[in-house]
Specification:
Layout (H helix, E strand, L loop, with lengths): L2 E3 L4 H9 L3 E5 L9 E5 L4 E5 L2 E7 L5 H9 L1 E7 L7 E11 L6 H5 L8 E15 L15 H21 L16
Amino acid sequence: MGKSYSALLPEHVDFIAKQPVFFVATAPLSQEGHVNVSPKGYDSFRVFSPTEVGYLDLTGSGNETSAHVLENQRMTFMFMATDGPPQILRLYGKGRIISPSDSRWEEVLASFPFYPGIRQIILAHISRVSTSCGYGVPYLSYQKERDTLKLWAQRKGPQGITRYQLKHNRLSVDNLPTAIKNDP
């Protein structure tokens, strides 16, 4: 059944590379705050070392991960097999927001393909890796990526994305500040 590790093994990295979707979970410190779980797709996840991972965060309707990571850094990533042998892989760690003004922005951004609407990069130092059976996860067939988010961001253009982020992505649903600032 389940096993735990202090870092990613090569077989974990291989498993991650085959998954078309992953999930990011974060929570605020407040007991009244909302726990957030976000599905992510595209070619947006990278393993930088056995203990450092990151993903390219694209503009969306909310920015909960940014607010929670700024407040307490805690985050969990989950990958699940939807074909082949069943497996669930979770990565537990402490996150960090890399914004366009960060000294590591260009270096880390170069690891990802370009997508319109890039908002930030979330890096995480992983302290625990766990596997579990995934026996209850159904078989699912991957067909293709949805173009909707890319097309929406292209239509808005860079200035439109900035305006959208300032209006919709500066605060979490619990009114916590995110990494989006008034002066981009």
